[in-house]
Amino acid sequence: MNALPSFEQVRDAAARIAPHARVTPVLRSAALDALAGAELHFKAEHLQRGGAFKFRGACNAVWSLSDEQAARGVVTHSSGNHGNALALAAATRGIAAHVVVPEGAVRAKLEAIERAGAILHRCAPTQAAREAMCAEVQRATGAELVHPYADTRVMAGQGTLVLELLQQAPGLDALITPVGGGGLASGVAIAAHAMNPALSLFGAEPLGADDAAQSLAHGTRVTTVVPDTVCDGLRALVGERNLDALRTHHVEVITVSDAETIAAMRLLWTELKQVVEVSSATVLAAILKQPQRFAGRRVGVVLTGGNVDLQALPW
Amino acid sequence: MNALPSFEQVRDAAARIAPHARVTPVLRSAALDALAGAELHFKAEHLQRGGAFKFRGACNAVWSLSDEQAARGVVTHSSGNHGNALALAAATRGIAAHVVVPEGAVRAKLEAIERAGAILHRCAPTQAAREAMCAEVQRATGAELVHPYADTRVMAGQGTLVLELLQQAPGLDALITPVGGGGLASGVAIAAHAMNPALSLFGAEPLGADDAAQSLAHGTRVTTVVPDTVCDGLRALVGERNLDALRTHHVEVITVSDAETIAAMRLLWTELKQVVEVSSATVLAAILKQPQRFAGRRVGVVLTGGNVDLQALPW
């Protein structure tokens, strides 16, 4: 259930979600290009349904179910965007969505999940509490678990954005995504290298949740990191299979401080004119932190989400 | 020099600016459609070069000049986006741009004008002082005046966005733009009705600068309004020819309070995920204020600019 998807599964996912998902635009900024010394092609997944790329994976999972499975609904645990995405995806098939949310999640995101029609189940903000509550809902309802990142269907769905991006911005040399649990980074890596093995792949990770960078450096999965970052979308530990994909596809993970990310977020707001959430800004922060890796190259930059509480901006 | 442009002049302008201007995307939001009870197609001119539609008109004016005229440079008076646009347009031709700026203009906009390479000339914030300073620069340099809205080349340039929009969003029933000096509204009206005479045309104007609405109601140009609105881009009095175009093309002007505009701005930030300036939000405010005029229709909505000071948000 959490094996890495093949490229064929990514292509199948693209066909499956096409009636429901948006083809998001690719945006440019002359000012940001000048600042980076590179050609940046921003894939605007914050303009995806539900305001984040997560709809792709959730939608693929929901429409992969048999009618019999679907009738029992879906369940997940998510601090925000995946929960919202699963609720919206379930609504496209008219089935129930149960979302386990940890205390302390962003209020605006919880409200969006409820508006999308999901049933919320609150729990303590620990991995153990989330999983226990999920298991309880599964027992009670028979709902299918759709894990936020350690799920083949979810990874395949996230990878579909690459099919669009490489067509919208031909001739890219490199791609960069944020790294949280690794669902996006792994799906993107698999699809990207299937289409163009010469692409350089990068990930951006908050210093305060740098378990993927540590895991790649040590050659073994580090699970002792206690996340301490303003990037609420990137606090999850990278999944085991997800980490395998990062390793196999030589994804170089660049770590950035929260201050660097917040400065990059301001740039995305003022120069690209896009309301993106803080986790999305790690990618620009990484490019500006290590410009020599990107200098003169054509870089696809994935903006992951735009669900922001305007009353709680980080500056 | 300030006669209304023909549709042919709009088409010529489109060809003239094509090497320099961006084809801006059209954005959608399911949440805003639901709120409005209409299908809203947002033409994202805040993603135009310089962060506003103004680049279209300025670029057309600059590239309409003979080599001899161009060598003496261009001059304008502008509280912000037009000045910036003229500076950027002049740079595409390698000529000098002089920009007369009134005291009290938005700091972020002035900085952008200087970054674009223009020579700033400061004056008192009155129409008379602006015009006097402009005349002085013209005498001293021989520069060509490019008025922000009462200029045929500028109006034709602004109208070019309609050529894109009607192709990007086929089957529109109505269009709405903000109304300040009327350069945008008049250019759009001329191009729109040349392409589809059945289109309903609307303008959105701040209550505190409602000279166009008053002028249309009284059948004569009202010049006594003292602007009092947070919409810094819409404080100019509507031009005489511009008003003629609004009248001829039956543009219905809807007035909105600053509070309504600020609420709409928040919606554009949170739902459409776009950093637009407050003047841009008048259009959504107008639609939400008079929903019966738009119910069930396919509406083209022009978002005019995105040059915002994040330290001085109006909420």
From TrEMBL, chains A, B:
Q: Where is the Tryptophan synthase beta chain-like PALP domain?
A: 18-305
- Please name the GO terms that the record assigns under molecular function: threonine deaminase activity
Name the source's superkingdom: Bacteria
Q: Which cofactor does it need?
A: pyridoxal 5'-phosphate; Ca(2+); Mg(2+); Mn(2+)
Which Pfam family, giving just one, matches this sequence? PALP
Q: Which InterPro entries match?
A: Ser/Thr_deHydtase_PyrdxlP-BS, TrpB-like_PALP, TrpB-like_PALP_sf
Asked if rRNA-binding is a keyword of the record, the answer is no
Q: Which CDD domains match?
A: Thr-dehyd
EC main group: lyase
Q: What is its EC number?
A: 4.3.1.19
Keywords for the protein's UniProt record, in alphabetical order = Lyase, Magnesium, Pyridoxal phosphate
What this protein is called in its record is Threonine dehydratase
Q: Which organism is it from?
A: Rhodanobacter soli
